[in-house]
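[Solved] Which block belongs to which protein?

Original post:
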Amino acid sequence: MYGNNVRTTETDTNFVANYTEKTRLGFIGTWKHRYYAIKQRLLPNASKLQPSELENHSRIVVHIDIDCFFLQGSVRTLRPDLIEDTETPMVVSWGETGEISCANYAARALGLHAGMRFNESDRKKPENVLVLSYCFDAYVEFATSFYEALFELTDHVIGSSCDEAYLDVTNGLKLDGVKEVGIESENASIRGKAMAKFIQKHVTEKCKLKCSVGSGPNKLVAKCATSKYAKPNGMSDNPFYYVSEENARDFMAKLPVQDLPGVGHVLFRKLSEEKIRTCADLQAIEVGSQRFMQLVDAVGGDVATYNLIQKAKGIDETEWMPDPPPQTTSMKISWGVRFETKERVLAVLKDMSKVVCDRAKMLGDRRAKSITFEIMLSKDVKSTKKKGFLGHGPCHEYSRSQNLTNATNDSKVINEKVRAILNKLNEEIHLGIETIRGLCVRLHFENTTGSPEKNPKKRVVGLRTDYRGPAQGLIGPQSKVHVPDKTQPRVNSMFMQVQKKQKVANETYSNKVEPDRLDHRNNNNDINKIKDDNGGEKVKKTAVPFFIEKEFKSIEQLFASYSRRLAIELHRVRQNDEFEEITRGQEQIVAGLATACAYSLADHVRSAVGTIQKHYVYKEDIEAFIERVKNLTKWHERMISRDDGVHCFVSAWKTACDEVY
């Protein structure tokens, strides 16, 4: 099915070795082990940074990031004549039909970014884009020289990845004879800028790769300084940027909340619903206040909320700990996984077992006390059988673990346990060989290093009272039990039927297919005909692309949430004695609330359209998305004669959607 020249787990008998040595995922997956070996060689006796070492000094933590690491490595190896070229768009990929793993800023200006791939239809490669192949041996060499340069400066290094690390240089540098103006200054601001400038220059000279440096009083502020102001070196006004402890709060206040570590898509949506968009909004919330307790419900806990506010203020209280040795090692393959025979499944698992055992030995002859096996099964086999597609697609994931009687790193024993777990899993869910799209073998080591296996969560001290009065029982945050708020007004029941009815309508829509559009989910190009009411034939429409459906679901949830809030606010206005005899004033407030709600929702729609446009889609796809969003008010329109507020909301909503695209 996939041809003789396509390497899959079924056709390539050496697939596991090629995957670990010649793929980006394999390189990234094994970097942690390489880094640990480098650190053991350069700094075998790493020690924890003691508080006494930081006395009488202003803390200086440096975050350093190599710009476009894979691209710089490939350019220096394959096209050294283009090292200083910042105008030519360049990407790293396996040929002109492979997935892009790295793009320079000139290519990003054309809309190209990591994760994209070119094909022969609507995603053709722009003519002026230069495609470079991977050079994994060069990447290992450059990453090794990068960390060697860092350990020359200080013993206090924490590695994040092959191209990113943190340094604590509060007590200065190990190098003698450093000639940098201001590096010995008593002024923290002058000293911090001088440190960042020297480190940026030193690393660039040693590993021959351009890098950006941000520094501040802790890791959080240093990373934000790098990502927002220092990157990219060569195009930024400040390839090295320093934020003092006194200015950290003001610096963080300008940043949007999505720039905070740990704020992903889901949490950002919840914060947006609470009208929190910048770190300044979080800084304004007092711990223990009513606003704080409202945010606890959205974020999911008082400790998490407290930590989020602390981050927004630029406060990072995590200890500076040397990198502990890995407590697990694993190998996971989720690309090119296509099986037709049971023999190939068992052969691949045998090779994977050998790889994880070799990694365990490389980490100092570590032995596994338990093993975890994971498998990914395709939800829709047809969608992953498209020509040239070797990804995993939408999958169900299953995981099983088993303890070992005797700790071991013997590949034969590990392989036997993996096969036993696979057979047991097959009895439970009846695996289909053709549906397998991913495999993972993970070893959990004995804790022989003396480091804790889990870091206990810190209790937040000081949250003794809130708007409900003093807490009873233990001092500190109490486990929050959700109690329905009976003070909330009851709202029009028909107004709240939107979510349920719209869900039924969307399911009906998503089952339709359109003949002249690509089916992005199931690759079903057949034109299905059905009988209409008059006995004639009509054609179903194609299902919308999955990424558009994802954005629509998000907007649909926001729409339901905003609708409820609007209904509550409208109810309160009508019940307010101040407006009982001032009908016109009441109408103005109702219209203002409805319009504000509609345009606030439209901002999220505009953001969703921007996300969709990052993919290669047709103009008609976006227009159809906008039309579906506009139709979210179809159930509200039945109430126009009953409620002027709903009428204003529907009109404003349609106008706002028309302005989006």
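(Second protein starts here: sequence line, then its structure tokens.)
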Amino acid sequence: KSPECAAVVRRWISETTEATSSPNEMVQFHAMQLLYQIKSHDRLGVSKLVQQFSERNSLKSPLALVLLIRYAAKLLHDDAAEGRTQGGSFQDGSPMARAGYQFLESSLRHKSEMVVYEAARAICNLPQIEPQELSSAISVLQLFLSSPKPTVRFASIRTLAMVAIMHPRVVAKCNEDLEALIGDSNRSIATLAITTLLKTGSENSVDRLLKQISAFLTDIADEYKITVVRSLQQLCLTYPAKHRVLVGFLSNFLREEGGFDFKRSIVDSIVALIRSVPETTESSLLHLCEFIEDCEFTMLSTQILHLLGDLGPGTSAPARYIRFIYNRVILENSAVRAAAVSALAKFAAHCPSLRTSVMTLLRRSLNDEDDETRDRAAIAVSVIDDAMVKFPYIAPAEDADPDEVPEDKPADGDTAAYILLDALPMSFDKLERSLKAYVATPTTMSSSEPVTVDSLPVVEDTADEIARAMSGGDALELDTAPLGSVLEEKKAPVDAAAVVYDIPELASLGRAFRSSVPVQLTESETEYVVQCVKHIFANHVVLQFIVQNTIEEQRLDNVTVVIDDSESEVFNVSGEIAVDGITYGETKNCFTVLERNGEAPLSPSTFTCELRFLVVQVDPATGEEEGDSFEEEYPLEDLEVSTSDFMAKVSVPDFRKSWETVGNSSEVLEKFALQFKKMEDAVAAVIDFLGMQPCDGTGAVKPNAGGKPHMLHLSGVFVTGQNVLARAQIAMQGENGGVVLKIAVRSEDEQISRMVADCIR
């Protein structure tokens, strides 16, 4: 593997090329592989290699031809990635792309099944390929579906299943052959046949497919069943009108024999459908109620009871679910009983008409043998009893007009609804971090003001929380870590503002709202490396300059960064804190304080920065001073303080509810034209401009969006402590590129909404 060995092998390129003409097929195969490895770092050489052997038609070894097809496909992938294809069509691309695609198509007529399949697979995997260019490869794969060899059938149907994700209409012509494979003796082939049919089938064929699947599912292992369940979930999202049939089909298998993973996959699918297709809510909840009547898995029972407590009270007939929940209090183990008590309490808090009945049931749990169940029941009884005294329920007259009957919901100020239904404004993890930040702030512990949730500092989402929000992690997703396994200990986030709190001169500024990530003001290879962290306070910005000395013969004293604030109407420099004694390889901090003009609206401000310091010549060996010292100035990159720096990335548990709660009284609507060629780049730029946290998984663009506009939900907390929400619709503008952005920003202050909307530039 050494460079010397590689150089020796490269000298044998003529002998290797000659070996490709050997009558022995394995010699041809290895010679082709070695030729590619010799030329792999030379794109032009690989292109000539593919062109030479595809035109000469001298390779007789199927294995060597398979390698040549893979090399040609890689060149086509590289062409597409570099934008050399016109309009996504390889036939209209560069000469090399046209020749490569024609070689793949010609290989579809080879006598070897191995070569034909490899060519078909390569064509199907080409990026941004047009549906009409797939027809020849699909026809070949369709013929392979009737092959007597199981490996050929499996390979072809696996490729068709991948194509069906992006181009279901193209694969639909194979449906008859796919249906014939449902009864295949190889269960992997049969499972792929079903999942592919579920992607390509029409709305009219759903009922017929379900009949075929029902007989098949009873005979296969759970791992195959889970694959089918996920495909059924996707089918329901494609045809929402069939939700009753599909949810009923899934619920039937909840009552069949099966392991935990299989049952969990069905429950997760039903919960996902409830969120995506609200029409399925009531029927799905009833199916889940029937399932927990005979559920052997405690984790699933508690999750379903939690879901019933959240969604059941909002249905048209919430009383119908109480019987199922109370049965769990009587018949189940302590964990399920505790979950059932909490669910009953939510019904009573949400529906005043049910409080008397639910209180009768809850009082029976006051003598439960389990401490957790007993404590939950005691709290619920006390809270609901107090609410019933303060807000008594008056039943409407039996002959009252339905339109005149008041809505069955708690009154304003109802304590039961507040305590039992309203979630904490932050998670327990964030509460812990917020309390630690509160304690670390100077002067807070000596303050006489009481500690309240509103007085706690805002903490931003961690990197894990941001990644989960970007990917759309499900809040109800179950933890499947094996019991007894050692979980990796979470690292506590470091408070970046702690260095500011250690400076006595800055203690009067109070608590930092947030701190930015370090911004590079020099290249990493320069003699003085400088980074800047922006610490945002209520009326100030503290700029922490992290200075590193990389010159061995120098020590830096009286180091400051001079900021030119002459062109800014929002900020002015109010103080500097220098640092002394930065020796070779050492990193220290100096600070500059910007004071914000509270009367001027926030807008992006760019500052010219200059590093000023006293250079002291020292002996590299001993560190002792030698020679004269002199003043030095070192120019830095410009530093920008933008409006997004004053926004903390904080997610909300329910974006839709929060959006409706804020209302449109202070809403700002804007429309922008942005110059981006890819949807992903535009979404990332909008998130960066606003400095807010994506919610509901909208930070990631779906891979099969098909050019549809992308809706982005964002939330954050402004430096004034007000919640800010934004909805942005991002749409690509034709083939010429460009993006149209429509954005709505809501907060309690129209001026803040305007400042946030103006962040787009």
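Accepted answer:
You had them paired correctly. Confirming on the second one: The CA atoms of residues 77 and 643 lie 41 Å apart.
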